[in-house]
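---------- Forwarded message ----------

FYI, see the Zinc/iron permease record below. Original note from H. follows.
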Amino acid sequence: MKMDDKAKRALQRMGVLSALAIGIHNLPEGIATYVGALENSSVGISLAVGIGLHNIPEGIAVAAPIYFATGSRWRGIMWCAISAGAEPIGGLIAWLAIGDGMDPVSEGVLFGIVCGIMVCICVKELIPTAYKFAKGKTHFVSIGMFAGMFIMVASLTLFG
């Protein structure tokens, strides 16, 4: 693909900004996975599977623009790894803050906070972005959302 330098810089900038945004988005996912696993290992496994599956397109969204801008697969992979590294950091933060357990009220508050963060990210960022990129074929977005919900229900059923 032939691009001028300005287009390459813009594409690389988009990839780096996507990596940073996804990294920020991944912090509460790490917290949610740790807290879920602390409560019940089945919940932790289900969250990890669901989050892992949705990280595949996130990785592509980060790596592809950087690769096309620079021609370097390693740079794309590096930025992908940086954004993905935020999840274990979120889990580590939760572990440091919580340790091996907490009282039920604190647990409820933390689950509520993480839930609010995740719902806000979905409603304000992920769903509108998906509809924007669907270019008139929004039924595919709806199908994808229901497929994701089905995967989570299935994983909760299988591991629960």
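H. also flagged this: The chain has a mean pLDDT of 84.
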